[in-house]
Amino acid sequence: SDVIADRLNRISPSQTTAMRQRAQALKAEGKDVLAISSGEPDFDTPEHIKEAAIAAIRNNQTRYTDISGTLALRRAVAAKFQRDNGLDYAPDEILVGTGGKQVIYDALIATINAGDEVIIPTPCWVSYPDIVGLADGTPVLLPCGPNQGFKLTPEQLEAAITPKTKWLIVNTPSNPTGATYSAEELRGLCDVLLRHPQVHILTDDIYEKLVFDGRRFTTFAQVEPRLRERTLTMNGCSKSYAMTGWRIGFGGAPRHLIKAMDKLQGQSTSNTCSIAQAAAVAALEGPQDATEAMRQVYEARRNRVVASLNATPHLRCHLPEGAFYAFPDMTACIGMTTEAGTKITNDWDFVFALLTEQGVATVNGTAFMFPGHFRISFAAADAQLEDACARIRRFCEGLR
Ligand code: PLP
C-alpha cells in the first residue's frame, strides 16, 4: 500500500521466510521436519561467558554505554585484532554494534551516495545487496562458481571496478559456500585494489574461527597494510562463541570511518546491550578452548555431510574450507520429476519439494544470488544431520 516507502521495494522478499512458514505448517500437521537451514550454532554459549553477563547485571552495568561500545570491550576487541590478526587498532578505531549486521549496515549507510557501486562476489549473504539497495547504491554482483572455488579472481575484480566503485565486500570464510581465501589469494586481490584508491574494502570475517584442514585465517589489512586506511575489518561474537542472540558485532577501521558509523548508530540503536558487552569482554579475553572444540565438531560434521552428498545421485558438493555450510550443486536435477510428481524447474522447486516430501528444510541458492544450488547448515546435531542426509539421498534417488 502507499504507506510503505519506495526504498523498501529494494529489499528482496525473503524466500527463507516462505520456507520457515511451510516447515511450521508441516510440523503443525504432525510431520517430522528436520531443519538444517539455520545460520546459527547449535551449541550453547560457554558457561564463563554467561557468568560474566550475570555478574554484570549484579554489578549494575545496566546503563547506557558509549555508542560505539564500552572502553573495556573496545580494548578487548583491539587486543583480539592484535593477537589474532596482527592488526593495530586504537579503541577509537573500533565500533561495537548490535550484531555484525549493524556494523555492515552502519558502514554502508554512512558512506554510499546514490549511484555508488559496491562489488559483491556471489554466492553471497543476501543482506549485502539488500543493504546496498537501501543505501541507494548499486550492487555489482560477480558470479564466482565452484570451478573457481567460489572465490573472486583478480581478473574479475579488475574488470568490474569503475570510477564509481565505492566498496568491495568479501566474506571469508563464506556463508553459504565455506570458501576461505588464503594469503596468496588475498594478495592477488590486494594488488588490484592498490591500483584503485577509490575502492574501500569491507571484509566480513565473522566465521574467522571456523576454518578447517589446518588452514590459517588471514584478512586484507594483514596481508596488505597499505590497504588499512580504506579497510573495514568486521567480525563478531555470534559464530565464534555461539552468541547469536546476544547481538555483538564489531569493526576496526580508520578513525574517520568509525566516527561516521558512530554518528549514524547514535540516531538508530545507540549502544548495543550493556550486559551483552560485558559477556563479550569475557568471550574475547577468556579461554578460547570452547571455540576450538566447536570448530572440531563442525569439521567432523563437514566431512560426513560432504561425503554423503557426493555419494548422492545428481548432486555434487564442493568442499567447504570453513564456516558451517555446504552448498551442493543441484543443476543435474533440473527437468526431473520427484516421486510425488513435482517437476523440478529450479532450485526453489527442489528445496520446496525436499521439504514437502522428505521433511528436510534447507535454503535455495537463489537466496544467495546463486541459482542451481542449495545450502545445508551443519550447525545441527549429528543424528539430525545423518537423518537429513539419508532423506536427501532418498529424495534424489526417487527423481525420474
Ligand atoms: N555476516 C555473515 C556472512 C553472516 O552469515 C551473518 C549471520 O548470519 C552475519 C554477518 C551477521 O551476524 P550477526 O548475527 O552478528 O549480526
TrEMBL record:
<dbReference type="InterPro" id="IPR004839">
    <property type="entry name" value="Aminotransferase_I/II_large"/>
</dbReference>
<dbReference type="InterPro" id="IPR004838">
    <property type="entry name" value="NHTrfase_class1_PyrdxlP-BS"/>
</dbReference>
<keyword id="KW-0808">Transferase</keyword>
<keyword id="KW-0663">Pyridoxal phosphate</keyword>
<dbReference type="GO" id="GO:0008483">
    <property type="term" value="F:transaminase activity"/>
</dbReference>
<dbReference type="InterPro" id="IPR050596">
    <property type="entry name" value="AspAT/PAT-like"/>
</dbReference>
<keyword id="KW-0032">Aminotransferase</keyword>
<feature type="domain" description="Aminotransferase class I/classII large">
    <location>
        <begin position="32"/>
        <end position="392"/>
    </location>
</feature>
<protein>
    <submittedName>
        <fullName>Pyridoxal phosphate-dependent aminotransferase</fullName>
        <ecNumber>2.6.1.-</ecNumber>
    </submittedName>
</protein>
<dbReference type="Pfam" id="PF00155">
    <property type="entry name" value="Aminotran_1_2"/>
</dbReference>
